[in-house]
UniProtKB/TrEMBL annotation, chains A, B:
Keywords: Kinase, Transferase. One of its GO terms (molecular function) is kinase activity. Transmembrane segments: none annotated. InterPro entries: ATPase_NBD, ROK, WH-like_DNA-bd_sf, WH_DNA-bd_sf. This is Putative NBD/HSP70 family sugar kinase. Belongs to the ROK (NagC/XylR) family.
Length: 406, 406
């Protein structure tokens, strides 16, 4: 079985510290600066730098003149030195991204999740797609650190298993981490979708400037990624972020929990489509039409000014706003970022309404306004987060408790 | 104006590190062990230890024989070397505790909050009561590090101001921290009540063994203290923990937010008393009766087996359980601890019902059971937490962002 490079794993703690410093200094750092910042000896810095340069992960990029002495050579990250793959398994679509060492997207790919396909066949398909992406991008396997996969919860983090995601029929206790590692030959990191999305926001989105924020994930299902003190809140079993049973109305469709008014039943894309079909706002889709296609038709009609479609979006905004108030009251976050595979199609109408309703809600406890904004990352957010997790796992001198199978 | 000792403030970081180590080793530590654990030189450890011993904060407690060399003298905390005062301002009762350096309660006192008293007169009363407690306990002022005060939110943490706590009439923008510092001559730390209760649980309660838990605070109002990775989650403006507007029923009394079914309207003590009076389960109290007294009469009737009172408690348990499910789904905590001034009187009936309902709820996402338990600390929990905050603030080498006026 082929495996991703373990170059970095054997490099040890000093190497991780040095690489992390270089990653965070896009303008480059001299060996002297690295020694000063880390407290490591000049000899250690020199040895590790040499190893990183020889491995193609770091490059020498110009000289810095400081005073009368010898100019100092600057070390910079070589983004193409290593890669990671992020996969996002949403109940209706699979998203793939190839990230370079800087966390930038080299290429991405989206494919609908085939209805009635077994987990086995989908995992096989994932492995084939990953192989094809690497081939198309001419990235050798030994330059790939691993695969991160974002999936709907609940998960068993210790075992790397999807337990029984409500919207993924037939995925009960699927050992996704192990199976994908076997199928691809790469180490695999498994993370809940909303947590992965929050990781992406911290890495590359607007969230990075904030210590605390919440990420409202709008996919086939919904969830809330929570970032506290620049760290994703994962909870005691890595299942934090479920908001589906927050009740936002006294009535509504019957939820799986036996109650009515749960937000997870009220605002998800397939519910909006169903409402629009029932009230004649859009026609029923063809027999094999996906929620993705139907939701695009619905949002097109809303964008064209259909009063009925806009009324549905306004009710959706009110429901989301009510849940945001509950969550911000509990956690005292002052920013909520919205994104996920289905978000962009409705944001133009929904986001400003949410902003207004949240801040005018007499139930809001916060003494400061709650900012809401779109994610700058777009639909691939959870896949990018999954890829960033792999980079973090291998490159951070203090990797968080992650879920690796190798 | 008299001030609390600033001995520790001038001791600097090394002293804080050493004292923190000694605090956490009740069996005592030798100077050699301290040097080994901190990386500080033997000389520095010796100097700082001498200063701590001379100040009466640390004492030499026996010898430890290790091998053939000179026996090592063990250093231990001297709990009576320093003290802190914790005050909990609940809308119906004020609780005071005097804590020693180990966080143990030396003495406590509870007094009803006089109706219609102005904030000024109450702050004056607090200062008088604190002076009386110190006098009765024969604790000199210069041995008191400061006063911690736990109060209902929302607060302005930066300014030390209570903004407009819903249940404290007439307390709008009261500069409690400054006013109490002026009235007492001590530095004052202000914390929201639910956060203070969570601090107490971490210090001295069962919560200390857990990284993550939630603390359901049952006072005149309710709230949820949240502990993530052994740290109290305070939020961006120190106002985290408000759960009053979580909707747990499709109907109910009209809430201040204009909705019905908010838990903050359904389960608070005065609501249970009102229900019991309306349905003839208990008689109306005398004109000046406090919620505290009325609630005791109600809980006595329930304990005596009144079916009507028990039905009210069972509905209350169901409402609390529904909110606990929302919160544990969002944060993935696996333990919820219940306490606060009104809790103990109803726990015997309510707690087991909550345990059963939470874990049987089809809305519960967690793959592991949620443990619920009573706080081991009792009614003084928020006051004790406020006192512990003062100890933390002065003694921890990494004091959290706190709110001191001195």
């Amino acid at each position: 079985m082929r495996r991703g490079t373990n170059l970095l794993a054997v490099g040890g703690f000093n190497q991780a510290v040095i690489l992390d410093l270089i990653r965070r200094a896009p303008q480059g750092l001299s060996r002297v600066e690295i020694a000063g910042a880390t407290g490591l000896s000049a000899q250690t810095v020199s040895n590790v730098s040499r190893r990183l340069i020889d491995s193609g992960i770091v490059l020498e990029a110009g000289k810095l003149n400081v005073g009368p002495g010898k100019p100092r050579t600057l070390l910079q990250l070589e983004p193409t030195g290593l890669y990671s793959i992020g996969v996002h398994l949403d109940p209706t679509v699979i998203t793939y991204v190839l990230l370079d060492l800087a966390g930038d997207v080299v290429t991405d790919h989206r494919a609908p999740l085939p209805a009635n396909a077994t987990p086995d066949s989908i995992i096989r398909e994932m492995a084939e797609r990953i192989a094809a992406i690497l081939e198309d991008s001419v990235v050798p396997h030994d330059r790939v650190l691993g695969v991160g996969i974002a999936a709907p919860g609940p998960v068993d983090a210790a075992l790397g298993i999807l337990l029984d995601p409500p919207l993924l029929d037939g995925w009960t206790r699927v050992p996704l981490r192990e199976a994908l590692a076997d199928a691809t030959g790469f180490p695999v990191v498994l993370e809940k979708d909303v947590a992965a999305a929050a990781v992406a926001e911290i890495w590359t989105g607007g969230g990075g400037e904030r210590d605390n924020f919440a990420f409202f994930y709008y996919g086939t299902g919904i969830g809330m990624g929570l970032v506290i003190d620049r760290d994703v809140l994962r909870g005691s079993s890595n299942n934090a972020g479920d908001m589906g049973h927050i009740r936002v109305a006294p009535t509504g469709p019957l939820c799986s929990c036996g109650r009515r008014g749960c937000i997870g039943e009220l605002v998800v894309p397939h519910r909006l489509v169903a409402e629009a079909v029932e009230t004649g706002i859009i026609a029923e889709g063809p027999p094999a039409s996906s929620v993705d296609d139907d939701f695009s038709r619905f949002s097109d009609v809303a964008a064209d000014g259909s009063a009925g479609a806009i009324a549905i979006l306004d009710r959706t905004a009110a429901h989301i706003a009510a849940a945001v108030v509950v969550i911000t009251n509990l956690l005292d976050v002052d920013r909520v970022i919205f994104g996920g595979p289905f978000w962009q199609r409705v944001s133009a109408r929904v986001l400003p309404t949410i902003a207004e309703l949240v801040n005018a809600d007499p139930a809001l406890i916060s003494p400061h306004p709650i900012e809401v904004s779109d994610s700058a990352i777009g639909e691939d957010v959870a896949a990018i987060g999954a890829g960033c997790l792999v980079l973090d796992h291998f490159l951070s001198p203090r990797p968080s408790a992650l879920l690796i199978s190798e």
